[in-house]
TrEMBL record:
Residues 2-54 form the TACO1/YebC-like N-terminal domain. It comes from the Eukaryota. It holds the Pfam family Transcrip_reg. Residues 60-227 form the TACO1/YebC-like second and third domain. GO terms for cellular component: chloroplast. It comes from Setaria viridis (Green bristlegrass). This is Transcriptional regulatory protein.
């Protein structure tokens, strides 16, 4: 998920709809508070607040696109865009070029559930430690990242354990992690988790990886979720 980009676009959208003052614009105030919790750099906030005042800057619209990947894998593509026609065309082109297929609305979303998630780099903690913390905090689960046999140490740094919990219990989990002195990354309000992850062969895995990578290169795309195991 491209959190900095998404927060920036949410700021622009909130200001366009309700003005630049957090005291009178509750939506903007909530986004700025979320940005503080996510430790979004101040310069990003200031840049997007300024951008919202530009006359040629349109407001942003949320869209969700569903994609059939490879090996039976489904994907959810979350978009926040100021030009819907551009985002549709860009996503369609990437999906077509990669040999995948856009799905009809509702064809893939039922495979996922929303959950609050805390992400911890695999280099910062072990699963046993996180399981103990999750149990004490009343969390639902700890999910391991997928490890490929050919992963090198540089790639491993960017892999995360995910502590899954409810919205009500989320602050408790964060507090427990802070007590243990562990570094973590919060979600952006929620993440989509697959209900029944699908195991695929190596070829399909590489094709899906390339598709996700190319989708995330698009400026309008903020997150891509898959049900690949």
């Amino acid at each position: 998920m491209k959190r900095n980009s998404k927060i920036g676009k949410e700021i622009v959208s909130a200001i366009k709809k309700g003005g630049p003052s957090p005291s009178s614009n509750t939506a903007l105030a909530a986004i700025l508070e979320k940005a503080r919790e996510l430790d979004i750099p101040k310069e990003i906030l200031e840049r997007n607040i300024k951008r919202a005042s530009e006359k040629d800057q349109d407001t942003y619209t949320e869209k969700v696109y569903e994609v059939y990947g490879f090996g039976g894998v489904g994907m959810i593509v979350e978009v926040l865009t100021d030009k819907i026609t551009r985002s549709v065309a860009d996503i369609r082109n990437v999906v077509k070029d990669c040999g995948a297929k856009l799905a009809d609305p509702g064809s893939v979303t039922f495979r996922f559930r929303q959950a609050r998630v805390v992400n911890i780099k695999v280099t910062d903690a072990g699963k046993d430690q996180l399981l103990s913390i999750a149990l004490d905090a009343g969390a639902d689960d700890v999910l391991e990242p997928n490890f490929d046999d050919d992963d090198d140490s540089e790639e491993e740094i960017e892999r995360f354990y995910k502590i899954v919990t409810t919205s009500d219990n989320y602050p408790v989990v964060l507090s427990k992690l802070q007590e243990e002195g562990l570094k973590f990354e919060t979600d952006n309000g929620y993440e989509l988790l697959p209900l029944n992850p699908i195991e695929v062969d190596d070829e399909a895995m590489e094709l899906n990886k390339e598709l996700v990578s190319k989708l995330l290169e698009l400026d309008d795309v903020d997150a891509v979720y898959t049900d690949q195991k």
